[in-house]
Specification:
Elements (H helix, E strand, L loop, with lengths): L18 H61 L5 H23 L11 H9 L1
Helix pairs in contact: 1-2
Length: 128
């Protein structure tokens, strides 16, 4: 006696080897890749726009500081007209470096002390 196989898998809609199901999976994978590529491009565009904006802000701040340096150097140059050439250029260099230090100190981040009001309370509790 021979028993035949009952082959009904080809009739099932969830058959993974069905040609239609294979095409659906390939289509879904392609759409997923396209969506991921669009997300990546949007993220890159956003990052590049942010970089450009920051560079423009730095350039405007730099031009403001360079105008301050020019004004300071003009003041020292006018003050040093009677002096020798070497001393006035030294004064201009010193003035420009102090202006750069002043502008760089303004751009340093200031940190927030979260425990400012409770430092004494904590010290008292630790001492007990």
């Amino acid at each position: 006696m021979s028993f035949g196989k009952l082959n009904i898998l080809k009739h099932k809609s969830w058959n993974v080897w069905n040609r239609d199901n294979i095409e659906k999976v390939l289509k879904d994978e392609r759409l997923h890749r396209e969506d991921e590529e669009k997300k990546r491009k949007r993220a890159e565009e956003g990052e590049s726009e942010m970089r450009v904006r920051k560079l423009r802000e730095l350039k405007s701040a730099e031009s403001a500081s360079s105008s301050e340096i020019t004004a300071i150097s003009n003041r020292f140059h006018k003050a040093g007209e009677g002096e020798s050439e070497g001393t006035s250029s030294t004064a201009v260099v010193a003035a420009s470096s102090t202006a750069l230090v002043a502008t760089s100190e303004e751009t340093k981040p200031k940190f927030l002390n979260l425990f400012e009001g409770v430092e004494g309370v904590i010290d008292g509790a630790v001492g007990n």
